[in-house]
Description:
By secondary structure, this protein is mainly α. The chain has helices at residues 5-12, 19-28, 30-48, 59-62, 74-101, 110-129, 145-171.
Amino acid sequence: xxxxxxxxxxxxxxxxxxxxxxxxxxxxxxxxxxxxxxxxxxxxxxxxxxxxxxxxxxxxxxxxxxxxxxxxxxxxxxxxxxxxxxxxxxxxxxxxxxxxxxxxxxxxxxxxxxxxxxxxxxxxxxxxxxxxxxxxxxxxxxxxxxxxxxxxxxxxxxxxxxxxxxxxxxxx
Length: 172
């Protein structure tokens, strides 16, 4: 049975506890002694090589640059853009209704402005208190707890699958 390359390397590095056994094996095995001699010559040649400077810094290529902003994934950028467009559309649609509720304020002094704003606020609160919402018809039906639990589990599983599909590109 011959010595492994790991055993020979550990012997050369003086990092083995089996030093006496390896030396006795090397005395009796010419093949392992030749392999040890080859390894010693290889390490001696490697040690004799000159230290060379790299022409370019390879570490700079792999270190993050703080000056560059982090880019969002394309689907997330698209989602944010669509949400902003929907919010802007809602503001534009609601603007005529909001303008009708705000009367033209006469700005004579700061205290008059606050008094007019307070008056307008109380007027709006009175209008809101008088709003009557239509009553919805009541439906009475019974759902067993098993069906309800199954529906909740189903909705939760759909939520998990949807999030998994959204986030799968970020994990790769």
